[in-house]
Amino acid sequence: MKINETSIKVRYQETDMMGVVYHANYLVWFEIGRTALIEDMGFLYHEIEKQGVVSPVVDAAVRFKQPVRYGDDVFVKTWVHDYDGLRITYGYQVKHTSGEVAVEGETKHVIVKRESFRPVSIRKHFPKWHEAYLHAMEKTEE
């Protein structure tokens, strides 16, 4: 399975009055990880958009395990959790450098035409991207 790990240096403006990362910022970090994973797969999201499609989030889940605070160094671990030719679910873990999981989550996306927001089959219209998703989910020997 292809996994991307992207480092995050927690900035002051990402925290709330309790000194911990404000919950909505984890979705921003998920997006950073997702974009990096797509690049690792050989694609640039802005180049994909030039083909008249976008990839909106249709569902998101976030589970909070441990706080992350200003000044912490963490990383976002991102992978393709599920893919069926139309919908893609990405999995995420935000981990402290100690390895302790702070946050887990998933986002589900579809590819739609920019003008109409009608779904587009990745399998049919973007075969190279389809193959990259299948390859990203393959189990690897460890």
Automatic annotation (TrEMBL):
The gene is yneP. One of its GO terms (molecular function) is fatty acyl-CoA hydrolase activity. Belongs to the 4-hydroxybenzoyl-CoA thioesterase family. The keyword Transmembrane does not apply. Keywords: Hydrolase. InterPro entries: 4-hydroxybenzoyl-CoA_TE, HotDog_dom_sf, YbgC/YbaW. Gene3D superfamilies: Hotdog Thioesterase. It comes from the Bacteria. This is Acyl-CoA thioesterase YneP. The lineage of its organism: Bacteria, Bacillati, Bacillota, Bacilli, Bacillales. It comes from Halobacillus andaensis. CDD domains: 4HBT.
